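User: Please predict the structure of the protein below. I'd like the answer in structure-token form so I can feed it into my own downstream comparison script.

Assistant: Understood. Taking the following sequence of 499 residues as input:
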Amino acid sequence: MLFANNKFARSSLFMLLIGAGLLVAIVLSSFFLAGMTRTYFDEVTKLRAVRSVAADMLVLLNSAESSQRGYLLVQNEAFLEPYQKALEALPSQVERLERVSKNQNTVNVPLEDIRRLIAEKVTEMQSTLNLASEGKVADAVAIVRNESGFVVMQQLRQAIGDVVQELDGHLINGISEIRESAGSLQYVTLGGGLLIILVVGGAIAVVMQHVRELAHARAEVEELNVGLEERVNERTEDLIQANREIQRYAYIVSHDLRAPLVNIMGFTSELDASLKSISAYVLADEARPSEDEVREARLAVEEDLPEAIGFIRSSTKKMDALINAILKISRDGRRELKPERIDLGEMLETTAASVHHQVSDSGGEVSISVGAARGLLTDRFSMEQIFGNLFDNAVKYKHPERPLNLSVKAFPMGRSAVRIEVADNGRGIAPEDHERVFELFRRAGVQDKPGEGIGLAHVRSLVRNLGGEITVTSTLGGGSTFVIRLPMDLSQYVRSSGP
């Protein structure tokens, strides 16, 4: 749960940092694009002012010229009104053109040329009007006809027109740049908004995942609470069973070890009796032993003593085997387990190789199938001992009338346990002996094979040390199936079983 909280905190912080970064990027981009747009707009405004003043100036000049020529044609004072207004406005218009031209650096406005040409045009127009007012209309018209004023006006139109044309090009470019900047700002805002929506969605997903993990953890806690009493009962049953096994082992020790001791005591008495017969013969001193004493002494030396010593030796040997078996079972519980990752299929193949020649010689076969239950974290030595004993027993107690077929199958039991079935077609075990075969020094069926009855007891001890359980299903003459249930991760069992 602590890991989940840390993961949630890291994910939330990550989402917040991404969101903050996006906001900063959007703000900076918007500020930059807005600044560019403002710069473009200011430049366009300045250029637009220059164009407007230049165009108005050209309109004033055209108006003055038209007024001049109209007056020369009709000699009507009313035609001079536009001329007078244009002349009055021209000086301020020239000043405005000079002022707005200085506010921008994009277009070079030929102010000196424009002033000169305006002065020449005004002089030409005024001179004609003066002549007309003096009655020299023909002279005034002659000045107009010589096209000097026309040429000046054409030069003015050309100069101002070039400025206006260049301004129009820059204005078009400026407007395009404003549109591009506005479009970029729109895309940045839209894209940033979408990214923020994605970040918010990711944050919501992280929160929802954390909520689901909390719900799952709560469900697990509730499930653990619900199953607590059941687990307590299971542990209590395990303790009861362990106590029963201790009592059974105590009985076995007291019974099976007592039998050799009784034999040793009995044959010790026989040794004592034989010793008396020999003593009577050996310690006869000067007296000659009787024939009965000689016969009894000879019988004691030739038969009674060797027989008693032989039985004593076999009884002590049996006691030694029994004690070693008990010590072996005891060492299983004291040995430190070393969980490591093993490949179940590979380990079974290696263990099965030790009995392969015995199985194949009789025409039998060994098949192994582990499927999805391949990876286990457990004690390798214990696993090799378990399956080594089971494979040896299958070979040892195979049916005499058919080849041995030995199969091993493994199935996952949820996410935390595995079920392993070791099946053979051997002699089988009678139903009443299914539990008895796991007891120490207990053997079932016909006793035509050597052994002390500790193999399956050793296997059960090893399996329980690994946190599992072993059972058998079998029919007499129909083969046996040993079912082993083990945790997938022994380290979890070792921690939960520790002090």
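That's the full token string. The CA atoms of residues 140 and 146 lie 10 Å apart.
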